[in-house]
Each structure stands twice: as structure tokens, then as C-alpha cells.
Amino acid sequence: MRVGELAARTGVSVRALRYYEEQNLLGAERSPSGQRHYPESAVDRVRLIQQLYAAGLSSKTIAELLPCVIDGRATPALLERLATEREHVDQRITDLLHARDRLDSVVTAATSNMLTGTSCQRGGPASVQNGPRGGSVQELAVAGGRR
């Protein structure tokens, strides 16, 4: 398949696919006219690359990981690095869960205010000033889940 079709099937821009190729994350055969042609397996590979980027891995780490995915072999150093990356992913998940809890607090307080006709500004009702987890709506929103 050509680069445009791969982009359409994966939801990734042509520019991003070219970047993946530059970073040795993705390979393509070249036609005599220089057009890129990708195998069907490139769809799954691009999706994996996207998932690993979303998990916070760098292109360098992804490049080191991909051969392990293909042939199942890894060095002890790579396994250690992957364990460290997994710990980072776990921490990001924890942070996101906290952020979601904070957003829930803001939504709850704002919904309550909307129903009662009160303001979200400082000096409003105690329920607004001190949401379910403490702190004003503004503090909760600014904190973005970090306290």
C-alpha cells in the first residue's frame, strides 16, 4: 500500500509516517519512481508505534523495543529499560486518575452551583470553596489533579 493509504487506515499523517521512517521505526519498499510501498503489517506496526508514543516512550526507546516485538528476543539491559518505562506508564496512569478525580470534583461543584444559582467565585458557598476533596473550584482546576 502507498503512504496515503497507510495514513488513512491508521489515522496518522503522511508527515508522521515519514518521520517514523527517518527514526527507523517503519520501513518501506521504494518503487522505481521512488514511491513508498508498505506491507499490510505496517498498519499494526504504526498502531503499536502510536500506542508506545502515547505511553510516553521516546522514538529511541521505541526503536530499541520494536525488534523485541518482532522476534521476541531482548537483552537484559532492554528488559530493565522496559521495566522502568512500565513504571513511568503506571505513574502517568495514577496521575491521570487523580486528574480525573479533580475534574469530577469541579464538575460536581459547578453542577451544584448551576442548580442553586450560586457563583464559582471565591466567597461562594462552602461546598464550592471546599469540594469533595478539599480546595476551591479554582484551585482544583489549576492544580490539574496535583496536590
Automatic annotation (TrEMBL):
InterPro entries xrefs: DNA-bd_dom_put_sf, MerR-type_HTH_dom, MerR_fam
Transmembrane stretches, start-end: none
Domain HTH merR-type as annotated: residue spans: 1-68
Annotated segments matching region Disordered: 120-147
The species this protein was found in: Actinocorallia herbida
UniProt keyword DNA-binding present: yes
Superkingdom of source: Bacteria
Molecular function per GO: DNA binding; DNA-binding transcription factor activity
SUPFAM superfamilies: Putative DNA-binding domain
Protein's UniProt keywords contain Disulfide bond: no
Name recorded for this polypeptide: DNA-binding transcriptional MerR regulator
UniProtKB keywords: DNA-binding
Listed SMART domains: HTH_MERR
